[in-house]
Amino acid sequence: MWTLLVLLGAFVALGGGATFAPNKELLECASQILYMNQHAYKIPENYNRNIPPGKNTTVYIGINVNRVSGVDENKEEITLDVFLQVSWEDGQLQIPPGLPFIDLPWEFRQLIWTPDLYIWQLQTMRTMSVLQEMASLRIYSNSTVSVNIGATITIKCQMDFVLYPLDVQKCAIDFGSYKYTSEDVRFEWHAGAPWRGLVGKQRNQFRLPKYVVTFVTDKSNHIRNFGEGEHSAARLQIKLSRELRSYLLESYLPSSLFVIISWGSFCVIPEIVPGRMVLLVTTLLSLVTMFDTVSTNSPDALELKCIEVWLISCTIFVFLALLEYFVVLFGIRYDKSWSKRRQDLRRAHSAAQLAPPPLHVNHSQRMGTPVTGTPQGGVFSPQLSVEDDGLKQQFSHQTIQRDSPILDTMPPNGSSRGFIARVSTMVDHGVMFCGAQHGALDKFALMLFPICFFLFTVIYWTTYLSEAHRATLE
What we know:
The strands form four sheets. Strands 3, 4, 5, 7, 8, 9 and 11 form a seven-stranded mixed beta sheet that branches. A five-stranded antiparallel beta sheet has the order 6-10-14-13-12. It is rod-shaped. The protein is built from ten helices and 16 strands. Strand 8 (135-140) and strand 9 (144-156) form a beta hairpin. By secondary structure, the protein is an alpha+beta fold.
């Protein structure tokens, strides 16, 4: 008994800290270590801690996610509080009969073979501690060695934010070996106890303010090729689904209302410039400010994000409404500037139509043509003869359009200027249509803008929802 106590004191003196390293003298002379209930444990003399227990040793991984501390989109990192369990079978390690298991000091892991576990996407790992570090080493009666560690880990996750906020991020975490190939060590998920390997009643979904985080263990055998060959790995899938409700209420709904409010400017009389201009400019500036806020607070992406496409499109709709008002104002100004001149030109044209054409009569015919007339009240009234019927028809076919525009009645001067005249006519009619006092362009815009925005909304949501669904299935 005294010998065992002396050996225990030597073990504590040589390896009492967490950074205990195996001592050669301890390995040579300490064949027994005292444990609880006065039970002694004996390490085999031919035990080699640098060689796996057997050919194709299976290492089982179990993980219990206690909390998702946070998701950093800018750094593309996920912080988790987990309890990690690693177990394997080592036939050379036996415990006293009659005991289901024994707990070994944490420093004892330096004296036995342990797998060289490597977490591929691991950024940082810190073992949790209260009164002592949350780490334990246990050997069961069936020679199974189990290591349990409570730690806070930070995982690096590659994220793509093109579909933001409809994006679904997927992160694959591989637990494997960096030294042993799949022929020596294989890694699998533990499916024994309910809390191991995220099976049974284990909580595998966490709701954050902006995310729903789901953990799923991939039971398939994953292989990573590097170094000397193929290395086995157990994969944990992390799925980040974004909560869309907050984005609908904070961005999509207000921007849609701003676009709808801009349509109210079509109902305002064009002559009320301050009221209509303030409505459109204020709406436009609000959308620009919202776009700047969303771009600043959202993660970076290589392309335009989904929400940025929506806000830019809403801004364009409001800008087009403002541009339409500029066109209406130009039409009104054009109509007022040229109204008087058009009236003068129409009067001149009407007077030219009312004036009788000059009579070109041959003097010889005039001398031979009798002029007949009848005295009426002492006044002689001449009458044209039959030969002047053509002049009568010329006067009778003269029709006067006093209200018709001059561009509609004046013929083009030459065939070379016919196209220019037609284009000028079309432009004149277009400007007159825009500047009409009855608001013809505003009525047309009031029908066209809602239809275009509705079609854009249908195409937008159909396209991006299908892309998000396709990305989820991949």
